């Protein structure tokens, strides 16, 4: 049975003070929920340390929104995975659509990051998803196949033990447009099939596939109740405890 993972991607938001206050509210409101579901917050790099302090021993995990694949060295402006391990981060979001489409990350770069992340023992959350024009042209599955093949090149079945896939249709991110539960389920089922073909039925069964794109308190339960939706990667609605806690609760409610 796959355990739900409810992850908050704060993107380039919050101040230190607001981020710490948010983390403390989550500890108050969701520490108990971590018995049933995995809860993860991914603040901007400068706030990792205060947020890690704020959630210490609560069961809530902290992750980064990106990392560089090289060992520490002369890479101005980058953050090494060793540094994230050193801090106590558990997870890294990789290949988010904003990094692909705004910062120009390619599947090849993302692939190096996935491999380096797993080699350091951290959880890799690999994001995939199609643009609106790709969906309209009925290319969704082809785009997902390409991003999965590129992002997971040379990633072994053993490494897959802590790889999470996040399906984030780009047209649903920050737009208020959510994939319908049927659209989400169809993409997730396709991704699971892909995993089965590329790896094994066991890998496909064990790998969590999160949905991301305008997840809110009022749609979380329907999305999470789809057979192949194993959690949520939440942007805007992860920035306020009052918005994020009900999404966590939806996961708890649906957990056996
Ligand atoms: O990109 C996302 C999470 O990584 C989704 O963002 P929103 O929830 O703001 O649409």
UniProtKB/TrEMBL annotation:
<feature type="binding site">
    <location>
        <begin position="9"/>
        <end position="11"/>
    </location>
    <ligand>
        <name>substrate</name>
    </ligand>
</feature>
<dbReference type="GO" id="GO:0005829">
    <property type="term" value="C:cytosol"/>
</dbReference>
<feature type="binding site">
    <location>
        <position position="174"/>
    </location>
    <ligand>
        <name>substrate</name>
    </ligand>
</feature>
<feature type="binding site">
    <location>
        <begin position="235"/>
        <end position="236"/>
    </location>
    <ligand>
        <name>substrate</name>
    </ligand>
</feature>
<protein>
    <recommendedName>
        <fullName>Triosephosphate isomerase</fullName>
        <ecNumber>5.3.1.1</ecNumber>
    </recommendedName>
</protein>
<feature type="active site" description="Proton acceptor">
    <location>
        <position position="168"/>
    </location>
</feature>
<dbReference type="InterPro" id="IPR000652">
    <property type="entry name" value="Triosephosphate_isomerase"/>
</dbReference>
<dbReference type="GO" id="GO:0006094">
    <property type="term" value="P:gluconeogenesis"/>
</dbReference>
<feature type="binding site">
    <location>
        <position position="214"/>
    </location>
    <ligand>
        <name>substrate</name>
    </ligand>
</feature>
<dbReference type="GO" id="GO:0006096">
    <property type="term" value="P:glycolytic process"/>
</dbReference>
<feature type="active site" description="Electrophile">
    <location>
        <position position="96"/>
    </location>
</feature>
<comment type="similarity">
    <text>Belongs to the triosephosphate isomerase family.</text>
</comment>
<keyword id="KW-0324">Glycolysis</keyword>
<dbReference type="InterPro" id="IPR020861">
    <property type="entry name" value="Triosephosphate_isomerase_AS"/>
</dbReference>
<dbReference type="GO" id="GO:0019563">
    <property type="term" value="P:glycerol catabolic process"/>
</dbReference>
<dbReference type="GO" id="GO:0004807">
    <property type="term" value="F:triose-phosphate isomerase activity"/>
</dbReference>
<keyword id="KW-0963">Cytoplasm</keyword>
<comment type="pathway">
    <text>Carbohydrate biosynthesis; gluconeogenesis.</text>
</comment>
<dbReference type="InterPro" id="IPR022896">
    <property type="entry name" value="TrioseP_Isoase_bac/euk"/>
</dbReference>
<comment type="function">
    <text>Involved in the gluconeogenesis. Catalyzes stereospecifically the conversion of dihydroxyacetone phosphate (DHAP) to D-glyceraldehyde-3-phosphate (G3P).</text>
</comment>
<dbReference type="Pfam" id="PF00121">
    <property type="entry name" value="TIM"/>
</dbReference>
<dbReference type="GO" id="GO:0046166">
    <property type="term" value="P:glyceraldehyde-3-phosphate biosynthetic process"/>
</dbReference>
<dbReference type="InterPro" id="IPR013785">
    <property type="entry name" value="Aldolase_TIM"/>
</dbReference>
<comment type="subunit">
    <text>Homodimer.</text>
</comment>
<dbReference type="InterPro" id="IPR035990">
    <property type="entry name" value="TIM_sf"/>
</dbReference>
<keyword id="KW-0312">Gluconeogenesis</keyword>
<keyword id="KW-0413">Isomerase</keyword>
<comment type="pathway">
    <text>Carbohydrate degradation; glycolysis; D-glyceraldehyde 3-phosphate from glycerone phosphate: step 1/1.</text>
</comment>
């Amino acid at each position: 049975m796959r355990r739900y993972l409810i992850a908050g991607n704060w993107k380039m938001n919050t101040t230190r003070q607001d981020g710490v206050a948010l983390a403390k509210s989550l500890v108050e409101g969701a520490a108990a929920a971590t018995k049933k579901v995995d809860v993860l917050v991914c603040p901007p790099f400068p706030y990792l340390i205060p947020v890690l302090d704020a959630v210490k021993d609560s069961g809530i995990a902290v992750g980064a929104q990106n990392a560089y694949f090289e060992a520490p060295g002369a890479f101005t402006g980058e953050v090494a995975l060793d540094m994230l391990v050193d801090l106590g981060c558990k997870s890294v979001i990789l290949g988010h659509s904003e990094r692909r489409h705004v910062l120009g990350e390619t599947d090849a770069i993302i692939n190096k990051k996935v491999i380096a992340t797993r080699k350091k023992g951290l959880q890799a959350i690999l994001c995939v998803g199609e643009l609106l024009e790709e969906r309209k042209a009925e290319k969704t599955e082809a785009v997902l196949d390409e991003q999965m093949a590129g992002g997971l090149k040379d990633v072994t079945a053993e490494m897959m033990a802590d790889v999470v896939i996040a399906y984030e249709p780009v047209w649903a991110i920050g737009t208020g447009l959510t994939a319908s539960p049927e659209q989400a389920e169809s993409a997730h089922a396709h991704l699971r099939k892909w995993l089965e073909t590329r790896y094994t039925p066991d890998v496909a069964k064990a790998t969590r596939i999160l949905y991301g794109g305008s997840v809110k308190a009022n749609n979380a339960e329907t999305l999470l109740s789809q057979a192949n939706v194993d959690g949520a990667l939440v942007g805007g609605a992860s920035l306020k405890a009052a918005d994020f806690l009900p999404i966590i609760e939806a996961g708890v409610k649906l957990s056996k």
